[in-house]
Amino acid sequence: MMNEDLNTLFCELLSENDVLADVVTDDLIQFGTYVGGRLEILKECYLALCQHRESYTYQAFLGAPIELKFDYIKQSVTISRENQFEVRLTLDYFRILLGLIDLVYSEVLPLGSVVELDTRRFPEQLKEMFSHTPGAKVIITGRKLPVADNIGHYVVDYQAQLWPLGSFPPVRPMTISNMMIKNIIARGYQDSYETSFSKHLKQSQIQEKRLSTAFMSQKAATLFLEQNKGGH
What we know:
The chain is of the alpha+beta class and 232 residues long. The chain folds into two domains: 3-105, no CATH class; 114-227, no CATH class. It is built from seven helices and ten strands. The chain has helices spanning 3-16, 26-36, 39-50, 91-105, 124-129, 192-208, 218-227; strands at 55-58, 66-71, 76-81, 85-90, 114-117, 137-146, 154-162, 174-176, 181-186, 211-212. Strands 5, 6, 7, 8, 9 and 10 form a six-stranded mixed sheet that branches. The radius of gyration is 18 Å and the shape is globular. It starts with a helix and ends in a 5-residue tail after the last helix. The mean pLDDT is 90. It holds the Pfam family DUF4176.
């Protein structure tokens, strides 16, 4: 899709979302479409939220910076860019907003892609797994896997194996999200059939309005981790 088509789709999903529909403003749309075109900002916003930072600032090459200020007592975040927009959301609403941006603008990588993971949010046990390797690299072996209905309306972006080990007992496959991917080292094989199938996976996720497990509610995340020991 062209960026204009993605922006239109994003606006449609915002207006149809049960939670965000009543708080949609031009400022909210402007922030969402801007970040959608620069997914590195999305990942940093997500990391700032997960790490309970007080603030995050993105300094664009041109123009005023985008500033996020978190208030964990009031459970809210204020997003602003001087003379352009200002948005205040609850943290729960902000998490859903980030999930919708990811849903619309993130691509589906082909099977066999090797990616490097961002270890900044890893628990110590997972960091130890990669402590003796040159980078946290995994190979993608599964894509867009819906979670159990009792957990919620979410999807696992990818299932992956350690690279270059692959399937190597007793190490279990990992579940990873777009938010965990730092770099794409090598893309898997693609032909017209794979491209068509990836498009189908993406369209199905959008039609079913399934956010990535990265953006689950706390209750859903607890259930998910109980049933699937590993990263998400």
